[in-house]
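Forgive a beginner's question, but would it be possible to get a protein, spelled out as residues, together with the matching structure tokens, please?
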Amino acid sequence: MPSGQSVVNFAVATNRSFTDKEGNKRDDVEFHNIVVWGKLAEICNQYLNKGKKVYIDGRLQTRTWDGQDGVSRSRTEIIAENLIMLDRAGQSSGNYQQNQNQGNYSNNQNQNFQSKSAAPQAEEQLPTISLDEEPAPQGDKIRIEDIPF
């Protein structure tokens, strides 16, 4: 990337099983184009590979460009903002979140996700989210007469 920011593009397959009108069980597979930016892209590049289960949420973005043949093309992608690795054998699932708005881009990216079969990192090297916050203080009980509506 000319700006020096990391970016990873890859596809995720989703499966849907259902019974059709005739009572036959069917499985449909759909592929979704994913774009990940910044630190989250570096984490994906390091820990994801083909076949890993992952939860991704983000926003949809459609970009258009003119191909080398002069034909206008478009592609709808999911710009990942949150990612949870669902099956990391022997370790707890990681939960990673993109903390910055990365803005739009319009050039055709041809970076592809590169599978890595790196040795698992020690747990202290992985980003973690602390859930050790103090519970909210308990105040006076609310009476029904105190509610203004």
Observations:
- Residues 66 and 72 are 4 Å apart (CA to CA).
- The chain has one domain: 7-146.
